[in-house]
Amino acid sequence: MKFGELLKSAAAEGKEKHVPVIEIGEARAGEGTDVVRVFIGKEVPHPNTVEHHIEWVELYGIKKNDQVVNLGRATFTPVYTNPNARFQINNVEEFKAFCALGYCNIHGVWQDCIEVE
Ligand SMILES: [Fe+2]
Predict the structure, then answer these.
(1) Whole-angstrom distance, CA of residue 64 vs CA of residue 81
(2) Which residues of the chain fall short of a pLDDT of 50?
(3) Partners of 95 in the beta sheet?
(4) Range 3-115: architecture per CATH
């Protein structure tokens, strides 16, 4: 088995949604850098109970020379924290794509990527 075979994407979704959504936003006043937001459950919130929840998301940036940069990880506490993270990214223009992983304690590891110009 290869690890990549375990990563699920949109085609594997059921009624609960797990695929991480990646959005790039411009800096807010005073922040100075762009923000990449990673969250799960854009249209259908994922359950957030002790028994069934999203434990973490990770964000990776793919540079134009294909170097993969781990940009950060956010961990969440079930019940209290929703799976929604904002990463402030310097030099966002150096990246050609962003990829994210998200982990559900019941349904495994989910992936998605977005390409930027
Ligand atoms: Fe789940």
Answers:
(1) 34
(2) none
(3) 63
(4) Sandwich (2.60)
